[in-house]
Design goal:
- By secondary structure, the protein is mostly beta strands.
- The chain has a domain of 151 residues.
- It contains one helix and ten strands, in the order αββββββββββ.
- Strands 1, 2, 3, 4, 5, 6, 7, 8, 9 and 10 form a ten-stranded mixed beta sheet that branches.
- β4 and β5 form a beta hairpin.
- The radius of gyration is 37 Å and the shape is globular.
- It starts with 7 loop residues before the first helix and ends with a strand.
């Protein structure tokens, strides 16, 4: 049996039908894929990172936009932060603990105004001492404040640059009002071992306002301003 060769018109018709089938299949695939089957370049970067806060504002490093400035957070009261109150009975006279920093030398500097603020619980060490005069000397002090308004203090002052005036120790209650801080002592022990009765020390006072991290406060007496930073 002899088979006839396909004519040119038959081949042309067959190819046209095949192209129509392929075209229809591709159209169906594109219709099923979002954005025509293309990657969403507006949301996904080629390096795998995302542009835009699709997860509610969290950045890729795990931090939230609203927390970007948390280091500079200023609190209006201590209730906004939670502190582990330090132990007041440090084993020293009046329950004090040892100094936490070496003595700092006086620096001649005018003192700005004090603005008061909340004194948060913590252990504070003197890190700077400004003096309105050029008289040399140094200041060393550690203050412990708990969450019930009690404190201990240990202090040593060299007011002339010719030697320290001896270490003194206190404990009692502490309170603040406006731009003043008051340490009401129920225990005083002097460098020579002598003791004193109850006494109130009231000083000009101000804080840096950062109670959650790096808190500090200043107080001033007799032309001297000291800065204490919480450990």
């Amino acid at each position: 049996m002899t088979m006839s060769k396909p004519s040119l018109s038959m081949l042309t018709s067959f190819l046209s039908s095949a192209l129509l089938i392929v075209s229809a299949a591709c159209s169906d695939d594109e219709a099923a894929a979002p954005n025509g089957g293309k990657e969403d370049a507006g949301n996904e970067e080629g390096d795998g990172s995302t542009s835009g806060d699709r997860d509610g504002g969290d950045d890729l490093d795990g931090s939230s936009d609203k927390d970007a400035n948390s280091d500079a957070l200023v609190q209006s009261d201590a209730s906004a932060c939670v502190f582990a109150p330090p132990l007041l009975d440090g084993g020293g006279p009046c329950g004090t603990i040892p100094f936490g920093k070496p003595a700092v030398a006086f620096v001649k500097k005018d003192s700005p105004a004090y603005d008061g603020g909340v004194l948060a619980p913590g252990i504070y060490d003197v890190v700077a001492a400004d003096r309105s005069s050029a008289i040399p000397g140094s200041w060393r002090e550690t203050i412990v404040v708990d969450d019930t308004g009690h404190y201990t203090r240990v202090r040593e002052i060299d007011q002339t640059g010719k030697g320290g005036g001896g270490v003194r120790y206190w404990s009692g209650t502490v309170s603040t009002a406006s731009d003043k801080v008051t340490f009401a002592a129920s225990c005083q022990v002097y460098a020579d071992g002598g003791t004193g009765g109850a006494a109130n020390d009231s000083f000009d006072y101000g804080t840096d306002g950062k109670l959650c991290a790096g808190g500090s406060f200043d107080y001033g007496v007799l032309g001297i301003r000291v800065k204490l930073v919480r450990r």
